[in-house]
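Posting this for the archive.
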Amino acid sequence: MIHDLYAHQAWADAELWRAIGAQPSARDDKAIHQRLHHIHFVQHAFLWTVGDRTQPFRMTKVEDFPTFESLQAYAREFHEQVPSLLGGLTPARLADKVAIVWFNDPPLSITIAEALTQAAMHSHFHRGQNATRLRELGGEPPTTDYIFWLWKGRPKPAW
């Protein structure tokens, strides 16, 4: 299921990025840009949390990505790193606990499976917000539901 959630997430992210990119008013919208950064920042944070923590986490700010293209490259960087992480996850590793360092009072420790599920669900929530904003700006949001992805035969992302 985790593999499917992340394959769907890559496809859904790419679908929404293409739709936003096709609508100039959305492409340049500050709220969409900030939310896109938030989505992909959180994806990177969870990737670091469940992955190789020998390197420090790279904190980014929305200002680090002044253009649509620079932020899209950041998004794609995450999706390019996911397959190698998921490929090494065994059932035992998925059951391992990780600390969610941004929760400290009280501290939070959850399984890797739970952390990965949270990250996928979090992205899904914010994609919906951006789809709504895209429609408000005159664009046509794509259908990115998980079941639609299944119905379409689990397509690969088309950035």
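The first strand starts at residue 97 and ends at 104. The two ends are 23 Å apart (CA to CA).
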